Amino acid sequence: MYSTLERKYQRIQKELMAGAIALGGVFLIGTLWYRLVEGWAWEDAAYMTVITLATVGYGETHPLGSRGRLFTIALILLGVVNIGYIVNRFTEAIIEGYFQEGIRLRQQRRLMESLTGHYIICGFSRTGRQIAREFRAEAVPFVVIDSEIESVQKAQMEGYVVYQGDATLDDTLLHVGIERAICIVAALPSDAENLYTVLSAKTLNPEIRAIARASTEEALQKLQRGGADAVISPYITGGKRMAAAALRPQVLDFVDGILSGADRQLYMEEFLLDPAFSPFVGQTLQKAKLRSQTGALVLAIRRADGNLIGGPTGDTILMSGDTLICMGTAEQLRSLNQVLVPIGSQTLRKPKNQ
């Protein structure tokens, strides 16, 4: 499936190619006529055909009879029509910017082919735009998919890598490197489309993390059964946040301040304990001295079996496969990153302006 812009570019390419082939055919017919019917030399036949098609008015290379002149008239008409068609298509291509668009499409295709370990946002509605802003703030590579030309143009204006297509189709996901991506976010307006997107993504890349948007509780359950790793309902989440803003406004402001935005002072990050890289596996938090070494605070530990330990103490033992949820400044987390590996990345994700 090709985007609207790609189809336009391919159409103008085909039309120009067809015009060039037709002009070549007219040239061949004229040359063969003057060579075989009039009995001229190949050089004279080709020269006569060129000056006839170009309508330069140099006159006949050799005298022509009535039959030859009638053929020359037909040859002139064919040449004028054919060259006029090519000029018309070429002018349209320049005015509409198809050649520049072709260059941009080739650059975009090469960029998508080079992407690896990236994120995919399906849908550039209000939800998708906010996700894209957060991803940009975190300086992570991502690509946007949307089927509407208006949304694609908006994404391009904001400087995002975008592909126009149906995110529910395997071909579209393959175009944006689904097999090399680490996470896909299905933020389409329809629950059914989000479900199809998650199913397609998991089929093409079983290891990818799939995040989906759901508008109802029933859709939430179906998306979970369909393989989504996390399902977010804007209405449920929005209701919870409004209640929290009413009951615990300072807590909500603090949490918002460390989870999103490019101007925050504190950050939260996930770190995976891998015995191949971390020397702290098997040690207690107190012995590891992560807090004293880096200044970062370990808020919670998720065991490999899914058990969550909130507020771990100094006696908590670090085990292989543990996920450490840590908080600190950019510098503190950068220091912690020297000994612990963030999930899905070898470097700490941080805003570009830090």
Question: Can you describe this structure?
Answer:
With 354 residues, this protein is of the alpha/beta class. It has helices at 4-37, 42-54, 66-96, 98-114, 126-137, 149-157, 170-175, 191-204, 217-225, 234-247, 249-259, 285-288, 290-294, 330-336, and strands spanning 119-122, 142-146, 162-164, 183-186, 209-213, 230-232, 267-272, 297-302, 308-310, 323-328, 341-342. The chain has a six-stranded parallel β-sheet with strand order 3-2-1-4-5-6, sandwiched between helices. The protein has a five-stranded antiparallel β-sheet with strand order 9-8-10-7-11. Strand 1 (119-122), helix 5 (126-137) and strand 2 form a beta-alpha-beta unit. The protein starts with a helix and ends in a 12-residue tail after the last strand.
Give the overall pLDDT as a whole number: 84
Integer-rounded radius of gyration? 32 Å
Report, as a whole number of angstroms, the end-to-end distance.
40 Å
Protein structure class? alpha/beta
**Regions with little confidence, pLDDT below 50 for 5+ residues:** 344-354
Number of helices: 14
What fraction strand?
5-15%
Oligomer: single chain
Instruction: Characterize the main sheet.
Output: 6 strands, parallel
Number of strands: 11
Envelope shape: elongated
Fraction of residues in H or I helices: 40-55%
Order of helices and strands: HHHHEHEHEHEHEHEHHEHHEEEHE
Strand order of the largest sheet: 3-2-1-4-5-6
